[in-house]
Amino acid sequence: MKIVLFAPEIPQNTGNIARTCAATGTELILVEPLGFSLADKYLKRAGMDYFRMVNMRVVPDFETVLKEYPDGKFHFASTKAPRAYTEAVYGKDDLLVFGSESRGLPENMLSKRYEDCIRIPMRAEARSLNLSVSAAVVLFEALRQQDFQGLCATGALTGREEKTEPWLDYL
After folding, report:
1. Per 3-state DSSP, what percentage of the chain is helix, strand, and coil (rounded to 5)?
2. Which pTM value belongs to this model?
């Protein structure tokens, strides 16, 4: 699975998405222009120490992605899409494409592959969801359809003694 961010603008969103990609083994492709430097402190803070775990690269334009994956199955996330992301069938090598925070994906890109466009349902008066939230929602549906292959689905309590916080009294 791959996430493609087309001209991302906000470093914190890209950092959050990088952390999600690291935790799921998903490749992250950033399409220039970027609205920030890869050395940005906010990008690094949002991604924490997960950058060492993520396969991330930058490409100069979307045409490069299309050339690298001529037979790739693309899913273009957009508020302008004709169907919900849950209606799509995802494969393990699919590419999930998201646009910039302020503009989304260009309509001339969407119109060429409109049958491959997906939308996260939301209220009509809402413009969009946060980019990192949208990427996680769609990615985890795609991974769910793959039975979360290669991911750990269970956790365990540590037995660690922790200070009781006042809010825990309500549990």
Report:
1. 40, 15, 45
2. 0.90
- We report the CATH number of the domain holding residue 109 as 3.40.1280.10
Neighbour tally for 45: CB within 10 Å: 11
pLDDT for residue 44: 72
**Ramachandran assignment for 69, one of left (phi > 0), alpha (psi -120 to 50 degrees), beta (any other):** beta
Which residue reads 């996430």 in tokens? 3
Total domains in the chain come to: 1
What order do you get walking across the sheet with 117-118 strand by strand?
Answer: 56-59, 27-31, 2-6, 95-98, 74-77, 117-118
Q: What is the mean pLDDT of residues 136-156?
A: 96
Distances (CA, A) of 120 to 6, 14, 25, 61, 84: 18, 19, 23, 25, 6
Mean pLDDT, residues 157-171? 70
DSSP 120: -
- Domain extent, residue 139, equals 2-170
Residue 49 has pLDDT above 90, yes or no: no
Report the greatest alpha carbon distance in the chain: 57
Mean pLDDT of the 133-147 span:
98
- Rounded Cα distance between 139 and 118, Å, is 12
